[in-house]
Write a structure and sequence with these properties.
The protein is α/β, with parallel strands linked by helices. The protein folds into 2 domains: about 1-40; about 50-335, Metallo-beta-lactamase, Chain A (4-Layer Sandwich). Helices cover about 35% and strands about 20% of the residues. The protein is built from 10 helices and 19 strands. The N and C termini lie far apart (about 60 Å). The protein binds zinc ion. Zinc ion binds near residues 98, 144, 146, 240 and 267.
Length: about 350
Amino acid sequence: MAGKTRRTKNGSQHGWMRAFLLFILSVIIVAGVIYFTGVTPEQIDSAISGVFGEGLFEASGSGDQEHAGADGSPDDYSGLLPEKGKLTVTVLDVGQADCIVIVSPSGKTMLIDCGLSSTEDRVNAYLEAAQIDSFDVVVATHPHSDHIGGMAEILRGREFRAIYMPRVTHDSKTYDELISVIEDHGLKAKAAEYGVTIPFDDALTVQILAPVADDYDSLNDYSAVVRIDYNNSSFLFAGDAEMISEMDMVSTCKDLLNADVLKVGHHGSATSSTEDFLNAVSPQYAVISVGEGNSYGHPNSAVIDALEQQNCRVYRTDQDGTVSFVTDGKNYVVKTQR
Ligand SMILES: [Zn+2]
């Protein structure tokens, strides 16, 4: 018994000696690396923070995606601000509504829709964080309150140089207020319709692909659908365009529909995202602007399935919060608030 105890004790002593020798050896190796390569411990530190993100940027596993919110709260945009020299497209989490802010590499600004009147504060918080106090271009895709509800108030105190709207009016206070703000700025709305090219930034091409026709039963089908190209990157913002408008686009300008990033039509409703349309767009990334627990049942699970079948990464503002796409004209980094 005693012998066995001794052997155990000897084994334990050997273990400690091995560990100590390994420690000495690793100190020698690290010192050698620093001596021979000139890499300082500070550089090793910064390389590590570059890999894992720094400050508020928290890296995720997928390489091109970052969770950018500091605390995930809806008004915290600290990690989602436009990047100078790149095209930044931010789909704001405004609940069951749309609001998209676009900043070109040279700092030109565009607003596509503006959320509900109840989400004005959230839009204001983003614009203030991004230091955007004027817009070069505004697009009101169609006059439903989940698209223009917050627009009059957001535009009232800001300069904007041009506003595009489809040729359709709407009998609502929200619509009247928007029209009066446009008049107060001494402007007239420009027609948003197929064939229009929007002057915005020389480095980008901005085209309106819909509405193709001038008479639709559904106000949603009057939605201005906007395409943006920047070098090899492309975005398609489908507004609330439904099946009829999608069919019109497929038959009129199918070649212009293919895009890397799709702002999915009508909050992911089953009334939109028809097979022919999605096949023509064939997006790598899709973003659905949708309110958590909304009464419409958006997004439709068949739409999500159809997008995923295209090997498309789907982002949702109800789950991801505000989503920001940053591109150098070729590669994308996608940042999410949650
Ligand atoms: Zn809508």
